[in-house]
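subagent[fold] <- orchestrator: predict structure for attached chain, return tokens only, no commentary.
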Amino acid sequence: MKLLIADDSLLVRNTLKRLIKAMEITDIHILEARNGQEAVDIFCGQKPDALIVDLLMPNIDGMGVLSHIDKTENTCFVAVLSSNVQEPVKKKCMDLGADIFIEKPITLEKIKYFFIKKESLV
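subagent[fold] -> orchestrator:
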């Protein structure tokens, strides 16, 4: 499985990688994007199976990334990772094609939920 993590925070990206490693998932290749433009470029070039995207990023924000990938044919499982948990924000993310919304801060339980939901939709 190819997983793209798109977050401008190195701390968040490293935390996600550490948690995934702790789950002992072996069949995973992690791609990283530091901003929305990188996320779109990597998404188009690498065609990941799953995407975890932050909403607040430079260049293109998370909503912009969702808008772009929604226009392409894909079966990518998408999780939005954000501390902005207002219902209108969640609804807009889901309308743009997100499968789940994960509230920051990220924890082992939340990343386990991501993989459980991803597998249930396969």
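orchestrator: received. Logging for downstream: The chain has a mean pLDDT of 92. The longest helix spans residues 10-22.
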